[in-house]
Each structure stands twice: as C-alpha cells, then as structure tokens.
Design goal:
46% of the residues lie in helices and 0% in strands. The mean pLDDT is 90. The two termini are 36 Å apart. The chain has two domains: 63 residues, no CATH class; 153 residues, no CATH class. It is mainly alpha-helical.
Length: 219
C-alpha cells in the first residue's frame, strides 16, 4: 500500500475555534460532536453495534495511523439516540430508527446464510460482496421484510454513514475545509483562489510552503 499523502500538511481546523471564523453556535455544535467517543453507544444493542462498526469501516475506511479517527458508528448512533431525523424519507422505507435496526439484522442474516458467520466476523472481501449485492437490491432474505436492500444501502448506509464522516473535524482536515465560516465567510471564490484563513494544498514542490501557511490558518 502506498503511503498516505497529506494534502494539507500542518492544517488543523480546530485552530479556528476561538477566532473570527466561527460563531458561538458553530463552536457548540463542534464541541458536541467532539465529545462523542468511538465506543459511545446509546441506541443500538451490542449485536447491532458490532455490525454497524464493521459496516462503517467498509464504507469509509480510515488510515490505520490516524491519531483521531472519526467515530462514524458512534455519530450515527448518537443521531438516532437523540431523535434527529432528515425530515423526509422514501414512502417504502420505515422510519430511520427501524430502518437501521432492520437493515443491520438483515445484513447479519445474509452473512450467516451465505458465509456462515455474522457480518462483522467476515473478511473484508466477503463484507464488500454483500454490500455490492445490497447496493444492487439483490439481498432478499426474509429479514428485510418489505424494505428493499437497495434503498437501505442508498438512503441509510450511504446517507448516514458518509454524512457522519464528513461532519467531523478530522475529515475537514483531510479535505482542507474550514467549516461554516460564520461570521467571517469566504471572499475569494474564483477558481484556484483561497482566503488566507483557508487551508493551503500541498502542491508538488511546495509542500513546505503549504505547511507554513497552514500553521497560520487560525490567525
């Protein structure tokens, strides 16, 4: 495996916390997210939790050397525990809580039927094979009931897991995003232009320059 390239060396979006980029509401929301630890579980039972963690690891795999991994499963669990909803859903889907419980149970049932073990006990290859089938709507175990596996994958797995990942500051550092930027906002919106308080990308031959600039983004 090739070494992971840090596109925004030296960048830490949390350096903006007490500066003019973020208002009190943004700080409060981020503090709430950062308080969620990787093993914090309030909604799912133990069996569902193990399946969710394995599922999240396949949808958004993270570098093994990452100091602060995004607690994806815990963020999904937290959203459901506090009753936060999208405000809309496909009419053929149950509500978000039931869809997740049913979908995770169904994934385990499919794993047992096809590979003789629970989803989290499978190899990553077998897990990916099941997820590909789910994406195509080709998982049809009775445990799915009336919920199509394709819609579970599209609306709940991709929707909730990917959103949870990119709602976390660790992911913001990875993509060089500075957050909502309220009240400061963004000014230089043209192609390949950036404000001084935005992250600098490490272009070939200019890595040291980007690192130095990124140390100043919280100013």
């Amino acid at each position: 495996m090739l070494p992971r390239q840090d596109l925004y060396p030296g960048y830490d979006v949390l350096a903006k916390r007490d500066g003019p980029s973020w208002n009190a509401k943004t700080r409060a929301v981020l503090d709430e997210r950062l308080a969620i630890g990787p093993e914090m579980r309030r909604f799912f039972d133990e069996a569902e939790w193990m399946t969710l963690k394995a599922l999240a690891a396949r949808i958004v795999p993270q570098p093994a050397d990452r100091e602060v991994p995004v607690p994806v499963a815990a963020l999904v669990d937290y959203k459901l525990a506090i009753g936060e909803h999208d405000g809309y859903r496909d009419a053929t889907m149950p509500d978000e809580r039931e869809a997740w419980r049913q979908g995770l149970r169904a994934l385990d049932a499919e794993a047992r039927a096809q590979f003789g073990a629970r989803f989290h006990e499978l190899s990553t290859w077998a897990q990916d094979e099941l997820l590909k089938l789910a994406e195509r709507g080709e998982l049809t175990d009775a445990a799915w009931a009336s919920m199509p596996s394709k819609l579970f994958f599209k609306h709940r797995v991709l929707g909730d897991v990917v959103k949870a990942y990119y709602a976390h500051p660790t992911a913001w550092n990875e993509i060089g995003w500075g957050g909502p930027a309220s009240p400061r906002g963004y000014v230089r919106m043209d192609f390949d232009r950036r404000d001084p308080w935005e992250a600098a990308e490490a272009k070939p031959g200019r890595e040291d320059e980007a690192y130095a600039e990124n140390l100043r983004v919280g100013d």
